[in-house]
Amino acid sequence: xxxxxxxxxxxxxxxxxxxxxxxxxxxxxxxxxxxxxxxxxxxxxxxxxxxxxxxxxxxxxxxxxxxxxxxxxxxxxxxxxxxxxxxxxxxxxxxxxxxxxxxxxxxxxxxxxxxxxxxxxxxxxxxxxxxxxxxxxxxxxxxxxxxxxxxxxxxxxxxxxxxxxxxxxxxxxxxxxxxxxxxxxxxxxxxxxxxxxxxxxxxxxxxxxxxxxxxxxxxxxxxxxxxxxxxxxx
Amino acid sequence: xxxxxxxxxxxxxxxxxxxxxxxxxxxxxxxxxxxxxxxxxxxxxxxxxxxxxxxxxxxxxxxxxxxxxxxxxxxxxxxxxxxxxxxxxxxxxxxxxxxxxxxxxxxxxxxxxxxxxxxxxxxxxxxxxxxxxxxxxxxxxxxxxxxxxxxxxxxxxxxxxxxxxxxxxxxxxxxxxxxxxxxxxxxxxxxxxxxxxxxxxxxxxxxxxxxxxxxxxxxxxxxxxxxxxxxxxx
Amino acid sequence: xxxxxxxxxxxxxxxxxxxxxxxxxxxxxxxxxxxxxxxxxxxxxxxxxxxxxxxxxxxxxxxxxxxxxxxxxxxxxxxxxxxxxxxxxxxxxxxxxxxxxxxxxxxxxxxxxxxxxxxxxxxxxxxxxxxxxxxxxxxxxxxxxxxxxxxxxxxxxxxxxxxxxxxxxxxxxxxxxxxxxxxxxxxxxxxxxxxxxxxxxxxxxxxxxxxxxxxxxxxxxxxxxxxxxxxxxx
Amino acid sequence: xxxxxxxxxxxxxxxxxxxxxxxxxxxxxxxxxxxxxxxxxxxxxxxxxxxxxxxxxxxxxxxxxxxxxxxxxxxxxxxxxxxxxxxxxxxxxxxxxxxxxxxxxxxxxxxxxxxxxxxxxxxxxxxxxxxxxxxxxxxxxxxxxxxxxxxxxxxxxxxxxxxxxxxxxxxxxxxxxxxxxxxxxxxxxxxxxxxxxxxxxxxxxxxxxxxxxxxxxxxxxxxxxxxxxxxxxx
Lengths: 234, 234, 234, 234
Known about the structure:
L-fuculose-1-phosphate Aldolase; 234 residues; alpha+beta; Aldolase_II/adducin_N (chains A, B, C, D); isomerase (chains A, B, C, D); Aldolase_class_II_sugar_metab (chains A, B, C, D); 39% helix; 14% strand; homotetramer
């Protein structure tokens, strides 16, 4: 079942390696079916060197395995909780990519310091609060999703397709698995540059709000004018 | 039309990827025809993985598409404005390369701290002022070019083939598209090293003016003695 | 003799290069036979470009060469001493990988700042005391092992599979040669991120003890639930 | 003439690229003939993508071209001056490799902070004084060599096979062209790590003198015991 989605999710996982976002097995990408009833996700602990479509696991929105005998990624409960709460997203990527994780470990938002950031993230990329001891000991991965959802109480996951889990690492999403990988690549780049700016300026100037508006909105939403029109054939 | 220039511009765009200056689709290179009536530039938002000569778009010096059905890079108005004002340049490269962009986001010139810098840039690489809200909301890309031209009121674009747009990223140029890529590679290297020097010395010594003269002029202008004489066949 | 172990150790050495942990000949991996009577280790000073199984040397637990005419790695006395003292380990990797070595040279433990660290190392990665002049001049490599063993007086080498030798570089181990390489890769990643965090926060918060417990124990020991069950076929 | 040396020097130049020490054309390696009457060096400004043995130029110890029609590297006068003064060296490598150049631009010695450094360089890697205006304007490249020789008045080029020219970049040497490249690789690694240590510790502890002795002397000189004995066949 869901062979096309499996292919797309498998490719997204392989692209994480290609773009240097994954070390060892620290990462996973998933996608949700069009009817939003099933999620395809990488099996747990499988080496990326051997990763094939058959290592994709189908689960329902409670995280129960629907097809196959492999265990899904241990982060599956986080993914499905995000899909249940963020109805507009189609793919999720989780990595421990270096620079985004540095900000997660420093427990700091990634401030918007330039147009690269503004092209992808509409404001500072937020960091969650730490989980409590109870949240960690009881359904840790579900609660990881819960603190993300809590952090997004007043944020739109379309305008802000990434979060840093405090002391852990980023979760990133998008309309498709492939787009969630693109956003993970963008997040890593803006995190690296934000760290560099902090080495030159202790308290750097955030990008002007009107430039943020301009850049995000020229790429996203009804007035976008970046890229090709949908029926062109570049 | 302009098939040779298209090939040259396509190659320049591919070289950006080869040298690690481009992430996702964040970059573009262009070239101007010998009669300075047409500019060839990359199409907007095309993946570098699939980039071919047919994705090169021909525009006039107002930015109107002259050939083909693809939209040109959204930065096209900036490129053509620079070609109109800097009559001596033949190619332009725009990237969000990491270290040059860090300085653009920190809104700091890149100081000349060594001979690597002096071999390519005759003094500090300048950063523009930020655009005003009006400039951003009305013809943003044209005004990006305007603040660059304003910043070069007393600078020679041959002696200083690069600029940092504040809060954005570098624009770099040269006598040909390929040479503008070389300068973008050099800019990234000197930015990376300037950031490193700043980690060792809070207020580093600029390169002595007489060394700057020596290095820039042994590579550029009538008394250059670097490289092979034009009729040799290395 | 021990052809399978030689193959495994040779592959571990080659994997060090593949993962960018080794410059020139600065590194070596070894493995111990099941009966814990012989150790297979890379020959000294052999170029990684030419490394083959025949360059693996068999020594006994005193470091005497048992098979072949090549000199074993000059670090052999350190390896065998660790095998004699840490009865639960099956492979050892020594590198001068950049970031782990930076902490060794700074003579600082690598603090546990995030779950990436907690997944592999159960607490701060310790640094040894410096060797005394006598220890250096008399049986230097043996004494390098001795200061490691001394540092582990109250540490479990299974829970903490790495150490930094002050002013030198890391030694890392695991149940097999391949797992020791995985731990060396993980160590380098957490060292790089810890250095980055230190650039954002002078005195970063260590990971909460209950998150450290959760992460280490979900991957290690009887209650682990990460990866596939042993008889699955991913 | 000197075909074997040309091959060796050509390979050394190509190895600079392979090991990431060269950007654009910023670098060159040379070697001296056994009778110390001729030097083989890369031609000036030739792209590394096209570099072949025929681009190697033979000069005498005054820098006069003895064979071929190509201009030798513009740094040739520096190379030949070093060969004339340092009688024990057989190859020289000049690069603008990132981290070594950062120290050259910061005009700081690279302190010996660990055994990686001690294995290759017997003490701090020295930086020269800046050249005077007269020295720059009159025979710049010769005088670059002179300030190096001046800096080595009390240093042995065998024990210290590298120097940083202030505001410029490193020159590195060794008994052969290939060994000078190895030393350039080592220099870049120790410079990168020294910069990292400085981010953790403002004033890091130098390596103990007795460890420096131990490491340098176990690899160099009559009591060396690293690597294979000369007649072994690893």
